[in-house]
DNA sequence: GCGACAG
DNA sequence: ATCTTGTCGC
């Protein structure tokens, strides 16, 4: 039987892939109970008025982070994790950091986070421990206290109150939330209380959710391809976009069950290859779409695109020639 | 039973 | 995720 290696401190245990996947499912379910799928942050999105005044006031979202991972062409186990932070107004880069590591966990569809989250969390931790000029220092102390009092995760994140993170990968648009058609409606009518509890568990839990919960950060998930779920497929989405014509560039991703998993957005009216936006953590879909739109110069929003490009460049420069 | 399956 | 050439268009 195929086995995967698992690091448990000093000793390495070999477990069957089925066992490991079961433990991954448990971990996802447990983290999922802490997931917040509505707006839960202190800042506001910049408006025309706030930018006219200058955009420097407290409370207006000023920075957007982006994370991505690239891989070496010769050795797929060598990876470069990247964290960038862009100014939301100018889309200029204000921070970048890289970490080249060897990955031992394979990519398994629906369990991407177990492969990629550790390296990305490490970059976020590192940023937390260093002071950076664009950090709102006042919030930093308050937020730190708040985290100390309320945190039940092992990671206390101080990212400031005016930032959020875009993740290359999905949020709740993820297959573990799959449910039979009309099951949800049935439950809401006859068992409203348990349905409320289930509605939490029915969410998928992709990389963006995983990172958001562990780092206690607002996150949104950006997929460049669709992870098929609840009857949704790339061809379905393209057909729907075609029937919508050029009037609308945004499409709500409603599955067979009636559940909305996210949104498909195309930057160009003529392009039928959209990006897939979904809620990560502490951000509603409406807000996620707004932020994706205001950071999109090209098909892929800038935070993700910059992380993507720079990650590949960094790996190229540092694997050959030093 | 078989295929599909983010990065 | 990565390997890949040119080509068409702003």
List the SSEs and their pairings.
Blueprint: E1 3-8, E2 11-16, H1 17-32, H2 48-53, E3 63-71, E4 78-87, E5 93-102, H3 112-129, H4 137-150, E6 163-168, H5 183-190, H6 192-202, H7 207-215, E7 219-223, H8 234-244, E8 250-254, E9 260-265, E10 275-281, H9 285-294, H10 302-319
Parallel strand pairs: 3-6, 6-7
Antiparallel strand pairs: 1-2, 3-4, 4-5, 7-10, 8-9, 9-10
Helix pairs in contact: 3-7, 5-6
The protein binds two DNA strands through strand 3 and helix 3.
Description:
- The protein has 322 residues and is an alpha+beta fold.
- 38% of the residues lie in helices and 22% in strands.
- It contains ten helices and ten strands.
- It has helices at residues 17-32, 48-53, 112-129, 137-150, 183-190, 192-202, 207-215, 234-244, 285-294, 302-319, and strands at residues 3-8, 11-16, 63-71, 78-87, 93-102, 163-168, 219-223, 250-254, 260-265, 275-281.
- The strands form two sheets. It has an eight-stranded mixed sheet with strand order 5-4-3-6-7-10-9-8, with helices on both faces. Strands 1-2 form a two-stranded antiparallel sheet.
- The longest helix has 18 residues, at 112-129.
- It is globular and about 55 Å long.
- Mean pLDDT is 81; it is low at 1-12, 135-140 and 151-160.
